[in-house]
């Protein structure tokens, strides 16, 4: 092969598609990859101020030194149970101390947390276990009246590699993480540790295909992600960060999130309940200075009568991302919460765009920020892959020092999801704003963004197609004031059958899927519209449901008007 020939990067045995050697060398030279592991981020902070409180979970307040000892206790215990560097562990813990400590322990050993969501059920967890070949599953015993230990038991039969169950409370057949943490352990530099270039963890993709893909993030790239974000957001030892979103999402985990706050000696406050009644008093009690929200949650906080009752004076920064934020809502953050708004347009795949703390108010309200790193390469392209004129809309492609080059064990999908020169096709339609920031204008990918939770249309369609009454179907987003988008299922019913929404939902619940994926409206139609190349015309369906909802709302308003006149 002649020098300079471009070849698609080959995945390594551990599922990582490496960056080309010359690119990696540049990332190191520039200092973006610092040769640090995620565990070492914590170690630095421990050395600096061991007695400082690192994590608050309800009544529990754990110092940096104690978090280190407790995480090392878990790490040692897991090693005694045979867990090794490179092993995968599906982690499905809610926002509790055990989530932070187990994650740190796994990062110390070099075992890979697979970051599942508490809302996931057998369908998703089973898939994650199979795809990752996980040897362990960690979950709560019961959470929101769901028995996670029983689920793990059900899934065992189809997950031959799974041999270890971890729980944060005593449970039959499970290793008790709290017991391992309580034993503790001192740091021992001779314990085997991962290398900075190793995969640190596997995040879940929003996913546009049948089932979620896994995103390998290396220590080098994730340390950069957390540290550079912390610096950009002004995090320091006085930062008190509230984890309001599910901690396994990239946003609260490392943007700057938990890892960013811990890296600079700040404090992490956990809550399992982000509703105003729980979160707002917690901000007052713990003097929270920063948090990350999705627009739907921000709206609940703004609309809550409790907002005026709690003293939110400590709050300096409210990050909002994960879905489109309306400019009118954005403007209310300073007025009604007394904090600086930061819009974050990010993705678990890597690229993070942040508005800067000193951007002018209208830029804070109207744009979704600009890239974190000078090494981020962004291209906005038309459907033929040609770069559009400045200010024009197009699909965003990106590569850079913390953006993946390939999904985990997904060669076929990778061939489509990346350009031959290594850019990730985000599926987001964006344009440059005059300020130099990006505006997210829409989406070219087929998913439903329900308040920041991404639902793959194909995944839900495949499930619906399993129903005996369904001939064919299409899932599309319908607009919603509260959560932005909800799922509407268009279904063509087989001759002689009937179907209504409760029956469809009951059928899907039996498939044991996360409930945020359930369709919230069913439209039974005689046929689905097709494009001129014969594919289902989803745009037409989205337009139809939007018009229908508008008509219904107008009808309601007219009805309410008539009612009032009577
Ligand atoms: C975050 O990560 P994911 O992986 O759950 O979802 C990424 C997708 C983006 O491709 C985009 O479609 C959408 O979510 N998105 C936004 C947005 N932020 C993300 N759409 C409009 N406006 C925004 N501000 O959602 C995520 C990861 C890290 C930080 C923040 C969000």
Structural account:
Residues 42-408 form the AMP-dependent synthetase/ligase domain. It comes from Conexibacter woesei (strain DSM 14684 / CCUG 47730 / CIP 108061 / JCM 11494 / NBRC 100937 / ID131577). GO terms for molecular function: acid-thiol ligase activity. InterPro entries: AMP-bd_C (IPR025110), AMP-bd_C_sf (IPR045851), AMP-binding_CS (IPR020845), AMP-dep_synth/lig_dom (IPR000873), ATP-dep_AMP-bd_enzyme (IPR050237). Belongs to the ATP-dependent AMP-binding enzyme family. By secondary structure, this protein is α/β, with parallel strands linked by helices. Among the domains are: 35-219, Rossmann fold (3-Layer(aba) Sandwich); 447-562, 2-Layer Sandwich (GMP Synthetase, Chain A, domain 3). 34% of the residues lie in helices and 23% in strands. The chain is built from 18 helices and 27 strands. A nine-stranded mixed sheet has the order 2-1-13-12-14-15-16-17-18. A five-stranded parallel sheet has the order 4-3-5-8-9, sandwiched between helices. Strand 1 and strand 2 form a beta hairpin. Helix 3 crosses helix 4 and helix 8 packs across helix 10. The longest helix is centred in the C-terminal third of the chain and has 28 residues, at 538-565. It is globular and about 65 Å long. 49% of the residues are buried.
């Amino acid at each position: 092969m002649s020098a300079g020939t471009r070849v698609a990067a080959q995945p390594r045995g551990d599922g990582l598609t490496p960056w080309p050697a010359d690119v990696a060398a540049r990332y190191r030279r520039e200092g973006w990859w610092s040769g640090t592991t995620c565990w070492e981020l914590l170690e630095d902070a421990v050395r600096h101020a061991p007695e400082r409180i690192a994590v608050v979970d309800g009544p529990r307040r754990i110092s940096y030194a104690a978090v280190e000892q407790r995480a090392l206790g878990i790490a040692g215990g897991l090693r005694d149970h045979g867990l090794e560097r490179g092993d995968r562990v599906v982690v499905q813990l809610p926002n509790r101390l055990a989530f932070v400590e187990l994650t740190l322990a796994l990062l110390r050993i070099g075992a890979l947390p697979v970051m599942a969501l508490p809302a996931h059920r057998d369908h998703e967890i089973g898939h994650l276990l199979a795809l990752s070949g996980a040897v362990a599953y960690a979950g709560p015993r019961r959470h929101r009246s769901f028995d996670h230990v029983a689920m793990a038991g059900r899934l065992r039969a189809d997950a031959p590699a799974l041999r270890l169950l971890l729980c944060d409370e005593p449970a039959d057949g499970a290793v008790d993480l709290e017991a391992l943490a309580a034993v503790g352990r001192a740091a021992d530099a001779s314990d085997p540790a991962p290398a900075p270039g190793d995969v640190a963890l596997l995040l879940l993709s929003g996913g546009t295909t049948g089932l979620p893909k896994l995103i390998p993030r290396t220590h080098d790239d994730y340390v950069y992600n957390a540290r550079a974000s912390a610096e950009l957001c002004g995090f320091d030892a006085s930062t008190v960060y509230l984890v309001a979103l599910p901690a396994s999402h990239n946003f609260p985990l490392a943007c700057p999130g938990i890892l960013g706050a811990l890296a600079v000696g700040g404090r992490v406050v956990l809550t399992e309940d982000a509703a105003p009644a729980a979160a707002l008093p917690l901000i007052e009690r713990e003097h929270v200075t920063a948090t990350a929200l999705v627009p739907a949650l921000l709206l609940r906080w703004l609309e809550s009568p409790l907002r005026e009752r709690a003293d939110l004076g400590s709050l300096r920064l409210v990050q909002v991302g994960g879905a489109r934020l309306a400019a009118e809502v954005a403007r209310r953050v300073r007025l009604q919460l007394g904090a600086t708004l930061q819009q974050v347009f990010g993705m678990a795949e890597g690229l993070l765009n942040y508005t800067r703390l000193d951007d002018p108010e209208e830029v804070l309200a109207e744009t979704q920020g600009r890239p974190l790193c000078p090494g981020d390469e962004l291209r906005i392209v038309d459907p033929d892959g040609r770069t559009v004129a400045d200010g024009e809309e197009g699909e965003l492609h990106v590569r850079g020092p913390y953006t993946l080059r390939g999904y985990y064990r997904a060669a076929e999908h990778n061939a489509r999801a990346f350009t031959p020169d290594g850019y990730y096709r985000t599926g987001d339609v964006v344009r440059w704003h005059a300020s130099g920031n990006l505006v997210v204008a829409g989406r070219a990918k087929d998913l439903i963004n329900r308040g920041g939770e991404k639902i793959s249309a194909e995944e839900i369609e495949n499930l619906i197609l399993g129903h005996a009454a369904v001939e064919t179907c299409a899932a599309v987003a319908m607009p919603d004031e509260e959560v932005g988008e909800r799922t509407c299922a268009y279904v063509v019913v087989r001759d002689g059958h009937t179907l209504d929404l409760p029956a469809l939902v009951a059928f899907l619940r039996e498939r044991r899927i996360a409930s945020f994926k359930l369709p919230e409206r069913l439209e039974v139609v005689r046929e689905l519209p097709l494009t001129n190349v014969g594919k289902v015309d989803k745009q037409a369906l989205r337009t139809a449901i939007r018009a229908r909802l508008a008509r219904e709302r107008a009808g309601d308003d007219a009805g309410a008007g008539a009612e009032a006149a009577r």
